[in-house]
Amino acid sequence: MTIAKNVSDLLDRVKEKNDRFQELSESGSPYVGIFYVIGKELYWEGDHMSEVKAMNGIKDYPREHSKYWNLSIQRILPEMKKYDYQYYPRGRVIYNDETKKFEVYCDKCIKNDSNIQREINGEMNIPYTTVYYTDGAHYKCHDCK
Ligand SMILES: [Zn+2]
Fold this sequence. Notes:
- The structure is a single chain.
- The chain is α+β, with helices and mostly antiparallel strands.
- The chain has one domain (about 30-135).
- The protein is about 30% helix and about 25% strand.
- It contains 4 helices and 6 strands.
- It has helices at about 5-25, 65-75, 110, 115-125, and strands spanning about 30-40, 40-50, 60, 90-95, 100-105, 130-135.
- Strands 1, 2, 3, 4, 5 and 6 form a 6-stranded mixed sheet that branches.
- Strand 4 and strand 5 (about 100-105) form a beta hairpin.
- The longest helix has 20 residues, at about 5-25.
- It is globular.
- Zinc ion binds near residues 89 and 109.
- Zinc ion (ZN) binds near residues 89 and 143.
């Protein structure tokens, strides 16, 4: 790892990273990440799969749902402040570098909803031929409990 010598170096590096992100976004590169389904709306955040290093054969997004809920969702939707991060259906998209497939661990109610799955695949550029949805045992919204 190198350390930026001055602010200009640092800004160049930020710009490079942003350009790369933009490029990948435009190329339809798939993401790994986490998501919520609130009402009929999908909310998600993630990293481009190609930018994530595999750990034990898995490419995963480092952020937890609780952080995403508290720091982002509750900011965009202040009315969500009365619910905790487990209230709404949620899930996580990872990439298995060995099977070359995306795995989506999610609530039962998402696993049984092909419409929302189509939306997730579309938004996160996940090729539907290489993805499977499965129960994430600890993902249980207020309806699935
Ligand atoms: Zn549920």
